[in-house]
Amino acid sequence: MIVISVVHQKGGVGKSTISQALATGLDGQTRIYDADHQGTTSRWVERRQEDGVDKPELAVGRIEQLPDLISQAENEGVNWFIIDTPPEHSGEVNLRTALSVADFAVMPTRAGANDVQVLPKTMRIARQIGVPFSVVMNEYDGRRSLHKQVLADLEDMATRNGQTVLRPLRSLAAHQDSTYAAQTAIEYAPSSDAARDMILLTREVTQITRGEQ
Ligand SMILES: Nc1ncnc2c1ncn2[C@@H]1O[C@H](COP(=O)(O)OP(=O)(O)OP(=O)(O)O)[C@@H](O)[C@H]1O
Ligand SMILES: [Mg+2]
């Protein structure tokens, strides 16, 4: 089983959107844990269950129980355990806990100065803990020179540190619209660009975590 934590100390950068997309899009049995008291992802899974959709499963428990929830999932044959985390104002402890149990972390960021400036701090914590990670730029607009510059800077930083930057995700309505139907873009609009971006992200994460890159 592979444990993936989706982290960034800033709010609203796409942690839940990406956690949910990975938990539905990765091959095999998946289980998701919502470390955020806002409960966005828990509610999203519960709504899916009401609709008769059983992927992903929901891991329920307090954050201190995370190691036990992970062992239990492993014993039950789960292939991927995804952890959606809260932004910093909920306390750095959750971030550290989520990183310390992870095999790999995905760090979404947007191009905004506040989002990008906080990222090195999140990266430092991941490095201290020793968990490999990849950054992904969310709501990327390749026509904007600022976005291209931020992406290039992230790639530089990643190269220097032996990490990777995943293909960026564009800003596309299907990511948001799909949540109203308790789905992901891949399910809601399978032939959309949003679905395509998420399929590529899922594929990249699979390759990296299986050591194929
Ligand atoms: N690539 C995208 N294109 C369009 N909308 C997006 C994209 N990514 C995320 N969103 C939307 O942006 C909002 C914030 O995303 P999300 O909830 O995933 O962020 P978060 O990091 O989990 O936020 P929080 O820190 O509050 O938990 C949501 O409404 C989501 O649907
Ligand atoms: Mg969230």
TrEMBL record:
SUPFAM superfamilies reported for this sequence: P-loop containing nucleoside triphosphate hydrolases
UniProt domain CobQ/CobB/MinD/ParA nucleotide binding: residue ranges: 4-166
InterPro entries for the chain: CobQ/CobB/MinD/ParA_Nub-bd_dom, DNA_Partitioning_ATPase, P-loop_NTPase
PANTHER family assigned: COBQ_COBB_MIND_PARA NUCLEOTIDE BINDING DOMAIN-CONTAINING PROTEIN, P-LOOP CONTAINING NUCLEOSIDE TRIPHOSPHATE HYDROLASE
UniProt name for this protein: CobQ/CobB/MinD/ParA nucleotide binding domain-containing protein
Species, as recorded: Sulfitobacter delicatus
Lineage: Bacteria, Pseudomonadati, Pseudomonadota, Alphaproteobacteria, Rhodobacterales
